Amino acid sequence: MARVTLENLTKVFDGKVTAVSDFSLAIADREFMVIVGPSGCGKTTTLRMIAGLEKPTSGNIYIGDTLVNDVRPRGRDVAMVFQNYALYPHMTVYQNMAFALRMRNLPGTEIKSRVEEAARLLGLERLLNRKPKALSGGQRQRVAVGRAIVRNPRAFLFDEPLSNLDAKLRTSTRSELKALHHKLGATSIYVTHDQVEAMTLGDRICVMYNGAVQQVAGPTEVYERPVNRFVAGFLGAPPMNFFTGSVKFENDTACFILGNDTVVLPQCLRTALADYRDKEMVLGVRPQNLSLQPPHLASQEVVGEAANTISATVSAVEPLGVRTDVCLTNDTGQRFIVNIEPHTKLNVNDVVKVHVDADKTHVFEPGQTGKSIAYS
Prior knowledge:
24% helix; five-stranded antiparallel sheet; Rossmann fold; six-stranded mixed sheet; CATH 2.40.50.140; 9 helices; 2 domains; alpha+beta; 20 strands; 376 residues
């Protein structure tokens, strides 16, 4: 295996469209790195440049200590698993997995040994004589992974390999991929738009937007300490709620003013927020860090709870089994979501007060990629 280093990669198509811009990332030996972002953000283009299927407009790619910008794909010693599996329909599972080894003129005994070992790891032993049309989507995906494993490459590249599977199969296959990584200890670069895959699979996550790196960190840090509003809103289901308002100071305490409602902000942000006094800002809070007062208390003044509450009206109730998502609209017309217990009785048009866990709030500058004030 080997580390993979990307230095200031840029890819411009037709001299006009910048797909990747000044992208730098260091993937450690044996690390599972997930590159995640919305469709069109440049993540697959980045992966294809690592594989040698696209040539960078500028920047460098190192696999181990070797600069591979001008090395052809077959000389880079990486194996790519594609979204559409890319299996040969006229070949059996065994022949598909053995094909690249035969092209290298490896001895038949070694080919047999590698294929059988990969089949054992992936639970494909009984399927080696079948052709792809006789396999389920999940089985085809495992064959595609097996074809990569037998090559013993320096790095594995995965291009949204689970996107063609149904939800239940994605979950089980994701678990299989994670277990396989632990067994092989392989350097892996995995591209996806699915934030659940990113959070569950990656040792670290690289979040991309508009061709650029937004944040690189472990899953927990990216989720709990997003560097900007885009990262905060991209990770999490439902996503983080955002409220537009302004920062005020009352008796040296920083507050976020949202219409007639006030949220007292954590003391640790007081110094960082001093430069944002009376400016329009964005408050971020995840649905699970909000809680509802019962409807019959919404019109009452509860001592000690006037601050850190938001007045709102229920617009939809969505039961999900393990929880219920409540969609609300506050007095300034901003929509947001709260997670509540599944058997809570609520109706559309109920007026409620929503308590904010102030210690779990985030404050961002305005704009899609407005930076987090915690990182000022």
